[in-house]
Amino acid sequence: NAGVTQTPKFRVLKTGQSMTLLCAQDMNHEYMYWYRQDPGMGLRLIHYSVGEGTTAKGEVPDGYNVSRLKKQNFLLGLESAAPSQTSVYFCASTKAGTSRAGELFFGEGSRLTVL
Amino acid sequence: AQKITQTQPGMFVQEKEAVTLDCTYDTSDPSYGLFWYKQPSSGEMIFLIYQGSYDQQNATEGRYSLNFQKARKSANLVISASQLGDSAMYFCAMRETRPAGNNRKLIWGLGTSLAVNP
Lengths: 115, 118
Description:
Chain A is mainly beta. Chain A is 0% helix and 54% strand. Chain A has strands at 4-7, 10-13, 19-25, 31-38, 42-51, 54-57, 64-67, 73-78, 87-94, 105-106, 110-114. In chain A, the strands form two sheets. In chain A, strands 2, 4, 5, 6, 9, 10 and 11 form a seven-stranded mixed beta sheet that branches. A four-stranded antiparallel beta sheet of chain A has the order 1-3-8-7, with no helix packed on it. The termini of chain A are far apart. Chain B has no helices and twelve strands. Chain B is globular. Chain A binds chain B through residues 31, 33, 40-45, 48, 50, 56, 58, 88, 90, 92, 96, 99-106, 108-109, and chain B through 33, 35, 37, 43-47, 50, 52, 91, 93-95, 101, 103-106, 108-111.
């Protein structure tokens, strides 16, 4: 029962470095999301995808790029990391077309620190 | 304006007592869904309960129930017989269906931190 798996769990970057967070889900979900969580800010949507090959911007997309080449994978990229991107990142997925499509399944989170 | 408001940044409850966590929402969409999630100190986000705007009865899931008052636009989470393991952050969220595309995203509140005292 893997569910939603995020890698890596922890990463420290220097300003200007790039990295990719990988999210993989084995539930055949259509929708996938990347959130960031900062103290006192709740969850903020970075990008999301409603299917293979499609992505869309969320509330805070600047500085991030995403790709969904396969249905089960959703990648979040930071091309040039900035200290403001220090955060905990969550990937989530859900099945489309149901009234409970907000029932998200989350990964364990990835803690990213940018120095 | 906030679409999801959780007015209680922090709450305390004695073990075995019931506690209500408040959530008010703002939408003009007649069809929407309301969700509660739990985030323990370990960090994972756990889905707790769902209420649809057209559901006639309040949702219940074990010790969790949702006090849904549609006219007041409130969807309070009630936890009965609190346990130490209920200590966590609790988030309320809403999914609208209009305009098109909104049904693909959740709107989140800022959360309420619940501490259960032994």
